[in-house]
Every structure is written in structure tokens, then in C-alpha cells.
Amino acid sequence: MSKELISGYCDPRFASVADIFRQSFESKFEVGASFAVEVEGKQVINLWGGHQDAKRSKLWQEHTIVNVFSVTKGVTAICAAKLIEQGRLDLHQKVSHYWPEYGCNGKENTTILEILTHRAAMFGFQGDIPVNEWRNWEKFIGLLGSQAPFAEPGSMQGYHALTFGWLVGELIRRIDGRSVGTYFKEEIAQPLDLDFVIGLGESDLLRCADMLMLEDLPSLSQLNVLKYVPNILLSKSLKSMKIAALRNYSSIAFDGRAMDNPNFANTDEWRKAEIPAANGHGVASSLAKLYGILSTGGSRDGVRILKPETIDLLRQIHSGGPDLVLFGLPYKFGLGHMVNAPFSPIGAKNNKNMFGHTGIGGAVVFGDVEKKIGFSYFSNQQHKDLKLYETSNKLAKALYSIV
């Protein structure tokens, strides 16, 4: 492989990890990616490689940014956590206390904790979702504020794939006055010099890698056969998967009407909008640094992001699934963060010290408070089903064999 396909820095101690990153391009499994790791507050890996486009004609550069989809939820949750720490947002308060219009149609008693842990049963839209109107914040908020939940809030865990960002983002806006994108920029990104943005400006558009999405979103469609198997023949976990298959909440949460064009994530409308659940863009080193800081006490160079007790609250398990949107699988959530994410590095080998988030394009970010790690992998080629996090799994396994 020509040397220019991979660039950056790697501490010689972690050369075997860099080799896996390099091999992902040599095999052509990945098109382009950036990858960074902090250990004990020090950056030990900051690599980028491959290409920004499907034709492999435009090299991935140091400052190439890419959409990381649901990894954005973790960033949004960190913003909410700052408000919690300041006493401005109460986890056990009703949503309607901050957002009065929300308290209707069965949502009157929904709490902030239920919103932040995917237990609000508001994982989709009851009517038509606005298509190609991603910048129309008020329209999304109006629909969510007025509709009924899909089940009794608090009664189930159901991943809020897109709606999480509008729900949490509106709470932040009601309390602080700033949008999530502006709040994150001013309170976290600028003080720490993080190259991560929610809602791109014109200059950012010029350095975006293309997201190469599949025609169909990753799924576990093979679970549909469980619909026809008697419960007496199923284990507890398989029964949960059967319930998920029967209810088919995943098709509501991952609404095909809004994403029927595989190129949707490369449009200016998507990129310029603030979609705090799904359209953060950046370089991997930015979130390796952020989660590296959170894994080493919450402050650096005189800038405090969160106090240690708030970080503990962020990563504490508040909901344990099964998740009836995510195919009945045993996802465990802290506040807006995955503490266990099946098929990904997060929570692998029952590691209870991790907290982070995966993205449906293949991105994975996490912190580890025991090993004091910040891990960030951003890529632009979506893979099918169980191969979705193949590269990040290999990278994390190699990393943990050393640390």
C-alpha cells in the first residue's frame, strides 16, 4: 500500500494497533477513516487514512470531517449533564416543567431521566415525519410536543434514534436559550479546541467526507423468524427479541420515509441542520480528547467539563433493556450513553468502566475510567449488519491487549 493512504502519529508502543488501521484500507474493507486514542491524558494515536469518496479519488486529510451519526447523542448528553451539574436541569423533574407544551396526550408525567435513558416511548413520529426539512427545528419540536407516546412512558426501553436529539436539545434550549450546537461550541469545543460541530457552516462543508450508506439500514431481519416460534421454546433473551420483532418499533425509530435516499447524509440540508441525535461532524482526535478528559477526572488545562461525580452519574446504568427498538438486545444506558452495546467494543467482556456511543455509519467513541482511555473511531463506509463495527472491534481488542 502506498504510504500516503495512512498518516498521522502513533506511539511505537501501539504499532500493532496502527497496523490494524492500515490493514482496513489495504483490504479495501474501509474507504476512509480517522482514529485516535488517549491514555492517561496523553494522545498516543492520531491517524487518518483512505479516501473521502466512493471512487477513492480524494485522500482523507488531517482535517477531514465526517458525520458520526448517533455518536452525537453522547455529546448532546454531556451538554445536558453540565446543566444537571449546575442545578438547572433536574433528572427527576417532569419534562413539562421546562417545556409546558410537552405535557399532553399521555406525556404529562414523563421525566427528564426517561428522556435521557430512551424510556420516554417517543422514539418516532405518530404522523408523517418532515422530509428534507432538517433545519426546521420548530416543526420537529411541535410534532413531538403535541403527539402521544407509543407506550406508557417509563414502561419500556426503546432507542430514540432521531428523536433523542430534538427532545434533549429542546430542553437545553428552553433552559439555556442556546441551541445544542451553539452550547457545545461555546461551552466545550472552543475552550478545549475540539474540531467537532453540530450544524455545519459553509467552510465546514468543503472538508466533509462523503458518507457511503447502504440502500437499507443495518438490521437483524433474521430475527423475524422468531415471530412464529412458540414462547415455550424460547429463552428469555429470545423472547425479548420476539417481542421486538412483533412490535416492529425499529421501523418507526429508523424512519425510512426520512432516509429513503442513501445520499441524505451528504446533502447540505442535513449537514447544516442541528440534529443532535445524528449529525455531529468532526475528526476522531476531538472526541478521543473529550472522552479522555472525562475518563481522567473531567478537566484539563484549567478547563473543567464535568465534575467526577457528574461523570459517574453519566455512566451509571439507569436503564438495562431489553431495548424494543434495538431488536430486543440487552443494551444498557447511562445518561444518553451506552454502557453496554452488543456487537461493539462498548461493554465488551463485561467491561463496566466504559461509556460512549456507537453510530449507524460505523463510528464508535468511548471512555474508560479505569484504564483512563479516550477512544474514537470515525469512518465513512457503512457496513452490513454484524460487520458494522468490525474495524473498531479489532482496534479496541488490540488496544486492550497492550494497556
Summarize the structure.
The chain is of the alpha+beta class. The chain is 32% helix and 14% strand. The protein contains 14 helices and 13 strands.
Can you give a write-up of this model?
- The chain is an alpha+beta fold and 403 residues long.
- The chain has a single domain, classed as Beta-lactamase (3-Layer(aba) Sandwich).
- It is 32% helix and 14% strand.
- The chain is built from 14 helices and 13 strands.
- It has a six-stranded antiparallel sheet, with helices on both faces.
- Helix 1 runs antiparallel to helix 14.
- It is globular.
- The protein starts with 5 loop residues before the first strand and ends with a helix.
What secondary-structure arrangement, pairings included, does this model have?
Blueprint: E1 6-10, H1 15-26, E2 32-39, E3 42-50, E4 66-67, H2 71-85, H3 95-98, H4 112-116, H5 137-146, H6 163-176, H7 180-192, E5 196-198, H8 202-205, H9 236-247, H10 250-253, H11 268-272, E6 280-282, H12 284-294, E7 299-300, E8 303-304, H13 308-315, E9 332-333, E10 338-340, E11 354-358, E12 364-368, E13 373-379, H14 390-402
Antiparallel strand pairs: 1-3, 2-3, 2-13, 4-6, 5-6, 7-8, 9-10, 11-12, 12-13
Helix pairs in contact: 1-14, 2-6, 5-6
Mind describing the biggest β-sheet? 6 strands, antiparallel
Whole-number mean pLDDT: 94
What fold name goes in the CATH topology slot?
Beta-lactamase
Query: Can you count the helices?
Result: 14
Assembly category: single chain
CATH architecture: 3-Layer(aba) Sandwich
The CATH class is Alpha Beta
Q: C-alpha Rg, in Å?
A: 20 Å
Shape: globular
Number of strands: 13
